[in-house]
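Supplementary Methods. Inverse-folding protocol.

Structures were first reduced to a discrete structure-token string of length 461. This string, shown here, constituted the complete conditioning input.
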């Protein structure tokens, strides 16, 4: 039954890889959304390809362990040609009463033998369990690589989105100050304005242009990082590719389960946690494998051997056979067997302690992710309200400035406040998306769309 399970796991991995590879490529995409970016990353990232090869290596180790249950059959043969020395030939001739002795001789041998280990103290059984647990560990490591890759892609994607928002804010700031500069120029030409006001707005335009350049730089850097995660050999995205704009959402749209439910989801789904559970199983099997040294070994051996002189025309009378049952039992090995068992038990205790620590770490990560998401919700709500207030304040001061009731310094101040508040709003929005993804990563739910066919939990169930 176990070989069928392993076969199904490998087959599922193959079809998942094939379906991902058969999906869209970046060259076919004009507007890139996060889901498509993650699918392309899973299909093209070299690290995941290497992890898949490690899974195959572990599967082959299972096959090696299972091979020990079968008999070993060996065949051999030899053809020997010899020539007797003249002295030996003379001696033989004398013994034979002066008869001629043929100094040349040929000997042909052929054999086929089989050996079958009948009992080894259940060592083969435990070695198979070790190999199967190791394969599951490797598979869970691959899944954990997928989980972390999905998070990295999301972080780079949302980093680029934040740069787009900051660029839009800086462009709006530039447009506002450009408009004010035009009005200041008209007023100055009419003799009602001052050169200092015009210069002020031009300085503000330059500041906004600097922010635009910085936002464009941050966008390019985020795309370079995203290109590496997506497995782009050139290290850059295709020309003309655009990102789908992240929409402003209500914080209430991000509905989550209770903390206890999320902790349970993480306990069932987190690949690094499941990997450590398989490590404990492997350690248990290692103890049994080392205890097998205290049992005797029983094997069955048989062979058929043929010998013939002068020609290769073997006949029935040229063959003989042997059959034996061998029992071996080590009586003393200097305490080495007992030490190996003690070492295996210590490794098992280490694996159990590591599992306990991993469980604590996972629970901590989930709780931290929940807290950050709740804070991001609160910040988005607060910043959205702040932007409305600051926009209203800026508009009132702008009207007052045009009416001569507000100073230029006050107008600069409220415009800077608006830019800062809008930037905080953008940061809060992207933070909400990022922290929602982080929570999915912490619980392992981010893998659900990609592992639905093979099950999120123990693949050996």
């Amino acid at each position: 039954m176990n070989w069928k399970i392993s076969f199904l796991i490998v087959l599922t991995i193959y079809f998942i890889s094939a379906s991902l590879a058969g999906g869209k490529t970046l060259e076919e995409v004009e507007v890139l959304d996060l889901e498509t970016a993650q699918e392309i990353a899973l299909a093209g990232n070299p690290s995941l390809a290497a992890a898949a090869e490690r899974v195959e290596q572990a599967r082959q180790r299972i096959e090696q362990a299972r091979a020990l249950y079968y008999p070993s059959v060996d065949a051999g043969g030899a053809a020997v040609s010899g020539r007797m020395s003249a002295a030996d030939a003379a001696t033989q001739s004398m013994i034979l009463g002066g008869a001629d002795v043929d100094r040349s001789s040929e000997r042909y041998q052929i054999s086929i033998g089989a050996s079958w280990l009948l009992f080894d103290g259940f060592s083969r059984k435990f070695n198979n369990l070790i190999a199967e647990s190791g394969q599951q560990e490797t598979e869970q490591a691959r899944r954990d690589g997928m989980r972390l890759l999905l998070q990295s892609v999301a972080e780079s994607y949302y980093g680029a989105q934040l740069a787009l928002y900051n660029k839009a804010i800086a462009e709006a700031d530039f447009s506002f100050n450009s408009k004010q500069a035009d009005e200041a120029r008209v007023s100055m030409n009419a003799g009602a304005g001052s050169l200092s006001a015009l210069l002020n707005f031009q300085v503000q335009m330059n500041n906004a242009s600097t922010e635009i350049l910085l936002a464009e730089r941050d966008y390019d850097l985020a795309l370079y990082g995203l290109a590496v995660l997506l497995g782009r050999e050139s290290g850059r995205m295709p020309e003309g590719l655009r990102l789908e704009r992240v929409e402003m959402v209500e914080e209430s749209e991000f509905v989550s389960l209770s903390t206890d439910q999320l902790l349970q989801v993480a306990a069932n789904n987190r690949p690094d946690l499941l990997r450590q559970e398989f490590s404990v199983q492997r350690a248990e099997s290692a103890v049994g494998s080392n205890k097998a040294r205290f049992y005797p070994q029983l094997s069955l051996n048989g062979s058929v051997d043929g010998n013939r002189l002068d020609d290769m025309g073997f006949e029935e009378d040229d063959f003989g056979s042997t059959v034996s049952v061998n029992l071996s039992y080590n009586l003393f090995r200097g305490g080495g067997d007992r030490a190996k068992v003690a070492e295996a038990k210590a490794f098992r205790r280490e694996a159990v302690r590591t599992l306990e620590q991993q469980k604590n770490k996972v629970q901590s990560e989930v709780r931290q992710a929940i807290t950050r998401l709740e804070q991001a919700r609160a910040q988005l709500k607060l910043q959205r309200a702040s932007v409305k207030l600051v926009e209203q304040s800026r508009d009132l001061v702008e009207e007052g400035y045009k009416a001569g009731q507000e100073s230029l310094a006050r107008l600069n101040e409220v415009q800077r406040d608006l830019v800062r508040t809008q930037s905080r709003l953008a940061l809060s929005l992207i933070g909400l998306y990022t922290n929602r993804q982080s929570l999915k990563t912490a619980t392992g739910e981010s893998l659900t769309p990609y592992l639905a066919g093979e099950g999120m939990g123990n693949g050996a169930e």
